[in-house]
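ASSEMBLY PREDICTION REQUEST
Request ID: AP-0331
Submitted by: J.K., bench scientist
Number of chains: two
Total residues: 1113
Priority: normal
Notes: Please return the full assembly, not individual chains.
Input sequences:
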Amino acid sequence: MSAQPSSKSVIAIIERWKDEPGGLLPLFHDVQAALGYVPPESLSEIAGALNLSRAEVHGVLSFYHDFRTAPAGRHTVQICQAEACQAVGARALAQRATELLGTEFGSTSDDGGVTLEPVYCLGNCACGPSVRVDNRVHGRVDSERLEALLAACRQREEP
Amino acid sequence: MLQFYEPQMDFGTPARTSDDPTAGTLVDLTIDGVEVTVPAGTSVMRAAAEAGIKVPKLCATDSLEPFGSCRVCLVEIEGVKGYPASCTTQVAPGMKVKTQTEAIADLRRNVMELYISDHPLDCLTCPTNGDCELQDVAGEVGLRAVRYGFEGAGHLDAEKDESNPYFTFDPSKCIVCSRCVRACEETQGTFALTIQGRGFDSTVSAGADEAFMDSECVSCGACVDACPTATLAENSIIQHGVPEHSVVTTCAYCGVGCAFRAEVRGEQVVRMTPWKDGKANEGHACVKGRFAYGYTTHADRIAQPMLRNSIDEPWRAVSWEEAIEFTAQRLREIQHQHGRNAVGAITSSRCTNEEVYLLQKLVRAGFGNNNVDTCARVCHSPTGYGLKTTLGESAGTQTFASVDAADVIIVMGSNPTEAHPVFGSRLKRRLREGAGLIVIDPRRIELVDSPHIHAHYHLPVTPGGNVAVLNAMAHVILTEGLHDEAFVQARCETEAFERWCEFIRDPRHSPEALEADTGVPADDLRGAARLYAHAGNGAIYYGLGVTEHSQGSTAVMGIANLAMLTGNLGREGVGVNPMRGQNNVQGSCDMGSFPHELPGYRHLSDAATRSMFEKDWSVELDPDPGMRIPNMFDAAIDGDFRGLIIQGEDVAQSDPNTQHIEAALSSLELLVVQDLFLNETAKFAHVFLPGSTFLEKNGTFTNAERRISPVRRVMSPLAGKEDWEVTLDLAHALGCDWEYEHPSQIMDEIARLTPTFHGVSYEKLDRLGSIQWPCNDHAPEGTEIMHENEFVRGEGFFALTEYVPTDERVNRRFPLLLTTGRVLSQYNVGAQTRRTDNEAWHDEDVLEIHAHDAEERGLVDGDWAGISSRVGDTVLRVRISERVRPGVVYTTFHHPFSGANVITTDNSDWATNCPEYKVTAVQAVKVAQPSAWQARQREFDRRQKQLLEHADQA
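STATUS: Completed
Returned structure:
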């Protein structure tokens, strides 16, 4: 999933967006899509090209939880912690996930396989608790299904 | 003038004035039963403040646009649902506002409870105890308890950032009001701060979560000023506590001439705060003016007069009486033996008007010759000549505030964000509002491309090609018919204009024909000329990059021609504006420092003027002009000139061709130096008279917009005398019977004898704050904009500006062109700023060189490069830079051992002898050790310091 940071692709993305009004957010999306994260060392270059300061660019980047400044694990598991899912057991599910992966919210399992994150509403409230694995949302996830989903992540990595 | 310390009045939101489209419309409303009338667009908060009603506030301050985040300024408005924030709500006719009700009180208290639940309760030991808006508001809303407790998540353990030498950032005290972030954006225009994260995790971040010193911060202190808590606090306040009284005075650094409140405890300055009512700066400051005043109490200050018979002898500390007596006697002896003209003086652009006036009077009336010159000789003398010739007055035409109305701005040979930072911020604000910008500079200065600033055209002129660029621009405007015919017809000399048209129309002045000389692509030059001609309001700001050339005066006239041609003179938003380097360059020129001019730029040959002075001074004046600085030095080497007084000026470091200067100084029989420190020049002196800093004296400075501003004493002179008192003593010793007890009497004399100063007095300065000359019967409160209905000389004069390339050209031996400039943190020769923590930003001068030229020479970042010109050589560290183009190298001269002026040559402006600092053909090669001059200089410095130690022990 994640590519090696390549300044070449960042430069191409900067070129694509530098003259567009409000180009900073789509630029970040493109960089994250290309590299899996936005390398902090690219901020000066992005700021210069967009006629902004490093502080401003950092302010925007840090405002959105979805943007990363370091590579994630090979898979990302997000457990909804918003009100509706909490009401149907999302907290316990989160607890279970941390036990299974041996990692906290916001961190990656030791083998680099899975990054665990909280998320606030996936728009799937009627079918909570909701969990998103990479780009796929799963509804009515209980402890067993969670184990299965995590196991599936592992399995996909095996040759 | 002693004023007990009180923070400056804060109206919460900015005043709404003429630039508002609804200007002139007044709105009546009622606030807490009080009827108030304010301009439309005013906030309810400001309207209340103007009526003396205080609405509690945290995120609002009148230097920043309202933001509406703190929610303590809520009010009730009849007929309006809810509780609008008074800062973001504009007044409306008939509005009825209540600022204090039960409901509002509850809301405010609750908001404050939330703030305080994440704020340390260490008020008694807090640095800003007694000067904290959070503390004030807690009192105003009657906060008594915090129901939420102090457990839970918080920011109380956040770590301090003490990287900046002048202020500390303590995020544990931050209430995230964003005032610092907005000050950095709106006031300073650097955008170095942001709020990172979101929600409860929001914190202030310098750069991308960096230490302040590693971020884009330029340490102007606007954030510190704007902070309502102790989060951003001056280290001096942390160390000493809040001030007990304040004195309004004028900064002694650059030509912007910012007004400051010196905030003092006893005789100790604990903070310099820009004065909101100061018209030059309107509450803004830079890292020099606000923070770099530590030199005034530096251990290197010399506190006693000193004498020696030769420069190989140790200094001997003596009494003032002995020093003055010795000096007077030696001066008379020299005059007796070598003639009346064998002595002279150099006045200082850093001293007050009164001090400069007195020293030139001493030369003319006491020495009986006109051998007086000033350091403006080496900076803006071409401005004096060029503007006098074309427009009739040797000064800039506008106020700084005029730039707020400019539509297209040309910045030529000036780097305002480094050298005139407070004006630079004002300029940037106008550019962010959409004004066009043309930068004419060999270097890609910050204005060319920086956050939210982008020059429409950058014309990277080859050093020496200014006149070619100006001629080509004029050629484009005239041949394309873009000039303002009506203005020229009405305001300028027809015959001269016709002659000039014929001259400039010639195809040899086209941008295409001159491309090789200008170094600027013809298309860009044409584009820039059209942009300026179509401007509406076109304003030109220029600096030493224009004047310090062999054709400096020609270029100044070329600038005036452009402005006249396009009708860009005589109203708000336009004009020709020289950016003066030092605080009182304008004043020192006004005060008659030039060998051919009496105060007010009146030529000595004018018998009427001369007789007026002769009558007032009861002496006979020599009608022949005296020697200019370079003539003095040449004559010293020849043995005709033997005695020189230099006040507050370090010619051995600042003037070109250092080795020639040193030879001249060594030839003098008597060199008297009056200065704060044993500077490079003083190392050649026989008499050292300790000077007083701007904090130690009364007087006035005149800034680049002709604004005369008061300088007021806040502490006693270290050596017991203000500088003018020393000149007075010397005059008495030479037999002059002058009587002055206070500088105000000197100003009265200046006003009496100088038509442009007739209406100036200390009483009026106290009343108005500052006065822009001319101030006389026609303009009793001064003149903001010059040449409004007609030019001072009557009709504007189009001077012919033939481009003559400088002799200083590249060849195989010297293939690079060296040009020189300034950095933000240092000032001129650095005598002051090098003795402050500003060294943290720039502790050595470096050679900026393009990667291509560096590679050819095998130079990498940090290498030593030997730089040689046809007059000398020196060694500087290399910095690879994209700011210079191939073929051009750049350095500064803030440090004495850099020897930048060992390489600069004797070439000078044809009209005024202003040295050609900006063009020197050089070669740069990789070397391993300092130059021979640097080695000699270090040895000389070591020896002279030893000689000084003897004086200390005496």
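REVIEWER COMMENTS: Chain B has five domains: 7-100, 167-297, 306-379+584-772, 381-578, 816-940.
SIGN-OFF: pending second reviewer
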